[in-house]
């Protein structure tokens, strides 16, 4: 599966002229769904976070997606957006995923469809810089410095099992000097 170029420039003029952008058909649905799957895989890989992705049946020209299927597709996009953890970027908006069925209910329009594809496109285009937004930390150090914690290991003349010399039980202090003294050292 390959990322397909999104359509993010639908306008009211397209609706009035009834161009191909005026209709959201099975091909558009499949493009949005496939692009969301690709984006989900990349974001999940780069952030090492498992993102829930709801599987939706592929639409055909004879099927009409329900509000539940539409909400599942949009919830996938919203979870990817939230999991990516990007700061505020123009166009990276919250996706509404609680549409209801019925003639009295409001329905998504061309601006909503533009937002769905724009969010996916922004995520894909900035995915390379995702690692710049993640703060990596090394081993945490708390309490006394490590060289001070292991001061009893410096002497080679102390036999390992013949003397009650205090030796570190673990190589990482838990936290604070008190916990290091209480838990980190044992008499052998």
Please tell me about this protein's structure.
With 188 residues, the chain is mainly alpha-helical. The chain folds into two domains: 12-133, no CATH class; 146-187, no CATH class. It contains seven helices and two strands, in the order H-H-H-H-H-H-E-H-E. The protein has helices spanning 12-17, 26-47, 67-84, 110-125, 130-133, 146-149, 176-184; strands at 166-168, 185-187. The chain is globular, with a radius of gyration of 28 Å. 14% of the residues are buried. Mean pLDDT is 78; it is low at 168-174 and 183-188.
Properties at a glance:
188 residues, 2 domains, 3% strand, globular
Strand and helix layout:
Layout: H1 12-17, H2 26-47, H3 67-84, H4 110-125, H5 130-133, H6 146-149, E1 166-168, H7 176-184, E2 185-187
Antiparallel strand pairs: 1-2
Helix pairs in contact: 2-3, 2-4, 3-4
């Amino acid at each position: 599966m390959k990322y397909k170029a999104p359509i993010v420039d639908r306008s009211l003029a397209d609706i009035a002229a009834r161009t191909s952008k005026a209709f959201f058909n099975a091909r558009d649905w499949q493009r949005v769904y496939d692009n969301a799957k690709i984006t989900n895989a990349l974001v999940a890989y780069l952030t090492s976070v498992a993102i829930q992705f709801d599987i939706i049946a592929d639409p055909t020209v004879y099927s009409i997606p329900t509000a539940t299927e539409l909400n599942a597709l949009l919830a996938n996009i919203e979870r990817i957006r939230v999991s990516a953890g990007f700061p505020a970027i123009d166009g990276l908006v919250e996706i509404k995923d609680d549409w209801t069925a019925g003639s009295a209910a409001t329905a998504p329009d061309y601006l909503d469809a533009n937002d769905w594809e724009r969010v996916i496109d922004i995520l894909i285009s900035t995915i390379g810089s995702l690692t710049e937004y993640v703060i990596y930390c090394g081993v945490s150090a708390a309490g006394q410095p490590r060289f001070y914690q292991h001061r009893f290991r410096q002497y080679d003349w102390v036999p390992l099992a013949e003397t009650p010399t205090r030796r570190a039980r673990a190589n990482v202090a838990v936290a604070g000097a008190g916990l290091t003294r209480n838990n980190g050292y044992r008499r052998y």
